[in-house]
Amino acid sequence: MSQSPKDRHPEVPWPQIVALRNILVHEYFGLNMHQVWTMTQKDLPNLDEQIQKINLDFGYSV
Hints:
Layout: H1 3-8, H2 14-26, H3 33-42, H4 44-57
């Protein structure tokens, strides 16, 4: 992702998203599935709202 959306939407936890991606890709067999599940239930709904706002900002219909 380019820097522009990141700069325009600082409310999105970009560094944490990158860090999670790295953990999911490189530590697959060492994952705590309970923590992953909890994160999907707790954090993804808010992230979904933020992504929808970004899509609208770029003129994409949601």
